[in-house]
Design goal:
22-stranded antiparallel barrel, single chain, 55% strand, mainly beta
Length: 711
């Protein structure tokens, strides 16, 4: 298996390198819009992406619209280092980056401020989505080593503009939106931007009808040439039944070709939608100071309310009611396609986040060297409040979707409330050693306090920690528009042993576990070409339960070994007269190492493809008419942590047309596309979630169309 995938990566890398070389020799072309994407704000530096010693991409709203992406899970179409991690229709998006799960509690940002991603985040009022790949200790206090995702809110534009959009997706989904920006005042010092979006959700997946809407208002006041005040508020709601996953049938991987990808196993008569109600708001003040310095204060709030409900399939014969000839399949479905079905309801969940970031940045000369310095502090508070929940056996389901069971909604289980306070001090510095060489430094110190308690007052935990995460890099311009760099940084995660009787260290905080990332990269960036070649090595400590864990004081939760993810990434964004190519390829070597249990060492984490290639090609056919072709390949992966059942690789092609039509002072953009052009049948992902193996099929061939009118 390794040889073909290495050959595939080699071919992809060679193709990208050839494209880079040929693009440099193209005649001068006229490029509309920005030549390069804006520097991702989540990196912490204002330099252009091609000059930064890290891997971060910014994906504009227009690029997402061309491909039909309306939620975060769609990012898996664009970057080879981003893959699925339990992405079900009707639920919140979950991603992997470089083989590690993004932690939806700590790895999501909105205009640079921390928010919870445990909700359906709307893209209707987002100007772009930014992805930082790799350890994020310099940008975040505690977070998984996958990196960060940042949602950039649409702000008032310099010129008045109105955009109307109407779209439809096969199955019955219809979406309409309005985006209006206008400036007021004698000096046009006041700006206002309104985004309204409504959708009737009816995908080809059966039993998943719902609706979603977003209303957002952003305003700014240019008080003076040196002072800018910005405020915005966003309300969005999504109500839609979620999608149940398939699973292994005993010790067998079911044939994806025999499974109906439109079948939703969450199809009981008593199935209720998952409802996400979200409110976001922020106030930001930017002030220019003397000597090129700038200060900023940014206050953000997030208020989430969720009704999380599902007819949930989990194992077979793991309770006293059902039976299967004495066999137990607690982490998968039975060999005959049966599974235990549970009535899960956790309603009126509240997750609240409030954060304030204050910083100052500017140049200073120290020891004869120029420093571009940023100093600041971030304080944030998170609070979750839940009620009792239902997770009750409701009968036995079947993978053909024919079983009908009775609801069992009694609130028999306790939930867990959490409180967290975080105070962070940070420093970032770019030191200009020579004209072509720079040193980059980052340091963040975090004071963390966390509490949790069950909804009945039992199992309380309470602990505090202080952690410091450094980052250093060295970059050198080896030629015009070419940069080579090396970086090293740390990230940190905090863990407390569950306060349950079986643990001898119940409720105790574990030492903060620090991940480490080393990265070497080569980058280029011009009006026509952006590209990079990166090698990385990430080590992340792991926790594990030691002991029988089946009786009181029989278990200990301790650090045991680490996950080591080494890989190579190649990416290119090429532009030529009448077209372009946005492509990336990744080869990942992800393994478990250093465990006291030697049988665990060398295992590949489940649901992590080792080889991935993704490309989006666009080419003008006629004046105003552009063809678009997408290619996605994800290599084989494993369905279980013991690597006993592999899941085959898959390749999918998408296609689309984009027609730009000028009518007077209006611009009409017509888009039509088809995803999964050949109607490929395969298992898109195999998440290991809740100690259970799940399988999600590729969505079938789906047509979509939209029209956008810019007034």
């Amino acid at each position: 298996m390794a040889q073909p995938t290495l050959s595939l990566l080699g071919a992809a890398t060679a193709l990208l390198a050839a494209g880079l070389a040929s693009a440099q020799t193209l005649p001068a072309v006229s490029v509309t819009g920005k030549a390069t994407e804006a520097a991702p704000g989540l990196t912490g530096f204002s330099d252009p992406p091609a000059r930064l010693p890290m891997q971060a991409i910014s994906l504009s709203a227009e690029r997402l619209a061309d491909i039909g992406i309306t939620q975060l899970s769609g990012l898996t179409k664009l970057d080879a280092s981003v893959s699925d991690s339990y992405n079900a229709v009707g639920y919140w998006s979950q991603l992997k980056v470089r083989g590690f799960d993004l932690d939806n509690r700590f790895n999501i940002r909105r205009d640079g401020l921390p928010i919870s991603g445990e909700t359906a985040l709307s893209l209707a009022n987002k100007a772009s989505v930014e992805v930082l790949k790799g350890s994020s200790g310099m940008q975040a206090g505690t977070s998984a080593p996958a990196g960060l995702v940042n949602l950039v809110v649409k702000r008032p534009l310099a010129d008045d503009a109105t955009t109307l959009t109407l779209g439809a997706i096969q199955g019955g989904t219809v979406q309409a939106s309005v985006d209006h920006s206008q400036r007021f005042g004698a000096r046009r010092e006041f700006g206002l931007r309104v985004n309204l979006d409504a959708a009737h959700l009816d995908p080809t997946l059966r039993n998943s009808k719902g609706n979603a809407h977003t209303a957002a208002l952003a305003a700014d006041w240019r008080v003076s040439p040196d002072t800018l005040v910005e405020a915005e508020v966003e309300f969005n709601r999504q109500s839609q039944p979620s999608q149940d996953g398939f699973s292994l049938l005993g010790n067998r991987l079911p044939d994806a070709k025999s499974v109906d990808p439109n079948l939703n196993l969450n199809n009981q008569p008593w199935t209720l939608p998952v409802v996400f109600d979200n409110t976001h708001a922020s106030l930001r003040v930017q002030q220019k100071l003397a000597s090129g310095w700038r200060a900023q204060a940014n206050l953000g709030i997030q208020r989430l309310r969720t009704d999380d409900r599902n007819a949930f399939g989990f194992g077979l014969d793991c309770n006293e009611t059902s039976s299967f000839e004495g066999a137990y399949y607690c982490d998968r479905y039975g060999p005959d396609g049966r599974f235990d079905l549970y009535d899960y309801r956790s309603e009126n969940e509240h997750r609240d986040t409030t954060s304030l970031d204050i910083s100052a940045s500017g140049p200073v000369r120290l020891a004869g060297l120029r420093h571009d310095l940023t100093v600041g502090g971030l304080t944030s508070q998170f609070k979750s409040r839940f009620q009792r929940q239902a997770y009750n056996f409701a009968g036995v389901g079947n993978v053909d979707g024919s079983a009908i069971t009775q609801p069992n909604p009694a609130l028999t289980g306790e939930n867990t409330n959490r409180d967290e306070r975080s105070n962070e001090l940070y420093l970032r510095d770019r030191v200009e050693l020579t004209t072509d060489t720079s040193a980059w430094l980052g340091l963040r110190h975090t004071r963390l306090h966390r509490e949790s308690v069950r909804t009945d007052g039992s199992r309380p935990t309470d602990y505090s920690q202080n952690v410091t995460t450094p980052w250093v890099a060295l970059s050198h311009a080896i030629a015009a528009d070419w940069l080579v760099y090396a970086s090293w940084g740390q990230g940190v995660e905090s863990e407390v042993t569950p306060n349950r009787p079986r643990y001898v260290n119940a409720g105790q905080a574990l030492p903060a576990l620090k991940s480490r990332q080393t990265e070497l990269g080569l980058k280029t960036g011009t009006q026509r070409v952006e590209g990079s070649l990166t090698v990385f090595d990430i080590r992340r400590p792991l926790w594990r339960d030691i002991g029988s864990c089946d009786a009181a004081l029989s278990c200990q939760h301790i650090a045991d070994g680490y996950a080591r993810h080494r890989g190579i990434e190649a990416s290119a964004d090429l532009k030529w007269r009448g077209g372009g190519l946005f492509a990336s390829a990744t080869r990942l070597h992800a393994r478990r190492e250093g465990s006291a249990d030697a049988t665990l060492n060398g295992l590949v984490p489940p649901n992590v493809p080792q080889t991935t290639v993704k490309a989006q090609l666009r080419q003008d056919l006629l004046p105003g008419l552009q063809a678009q072709v997408g290619l996605l390949h994800e290599g084989s992966r494993f369905a279980t942590p013991d690597n006993s059942i592999p899941v085959p690789a898959w390749t999918v092609a998408d296609a689309g047309l984009r027609y730009l039509q000028n009518v007077g002072n209006q611009t009409w953009i017509w888009r039509a596309g088809v995803d999964n052009l050949t109607n490929r049948r395969a298992w898109r992902e195999s998440p290991w979630q809740f100690e259970h193996s799940y399988l999600y099929p590729l969505a079938p061939r789906t047509f979509r169309a939209s029209v956008e009118v810019r007034l």
